Amino acid sequence: MRRIYHRFPQSIDLDFELARPFQDVLACMARMHDTHTTGRGPDGLVKERIVLQVADGRTQFQDLDATLTRAGAITEVADFRVGLQKTLLTPDKRLPVSENVFYLRLVDKGPVTECYVAKESRLGDMDAMDLRSLLKGACE
């Protein structure tokens, strides 16, 4: 089943190919969903979290679930909303640093998967190339 978002941006920031079949890329995306890393930043500990949502009913997104990535549940094309959140961890509280939101379209092209990336807004400290590096690192 195709998972298309009807308001996917017409202006694409980056398009590239992953040298993996469509179902493998979906499995990689499912493994990345709701994961986080913690590293030392200039102001202290910074938690980076990845939240993935898949298009549902052409008008909205739902959280990516392992059942959606099983073979045959999503075919041909899938649109995702990728949220990359950074939070500064202090002894007293957690302070949001930035949130980068991208739209990602995956298209099945046989042995490779075509990817189209568009950033939702100009806010945040990441760009489409950073998302490409993240995906390539997770899937290859």
What do you see in this structure?
The chain has helices at residues 22-32, 128-139, and strands at residues 14-18, 35-41, 44-56, 60-63, 77-89, 94-109, 112-119. With 140 residues, the chain is α+β, with helices and mostly antiparallel strands. The protein has one domain (14-139). Strands 1, 2, 3, 4, 5, 6 and 7 form a 7-stranded antiparallel beta sheet that branches. A hairpin with a 2-residue loop joins β2 (35-41) and β3 (44-56).
Which regions are unreliable across 5 or more consecutive residues at pLDDT < 50? none
Instruction: Assign a percent range to the helix content.
Output: 10-25%
Report the biggest beta sheet as strand number plus sense, adding barrel if it closes. 7 strands, antiparallel
* Total beta strands: 7
Number of helices: 2
Strand content: over 45%
Brief summary of the model shown:
The chain has two helices and seven strands. It has 140 residues and is α+β, with helices and mostly antiparallel strands. Strands 1, 2, 3, 4, 5, 6 and 7 form a seven-stranded antiparallel sheet that branches.
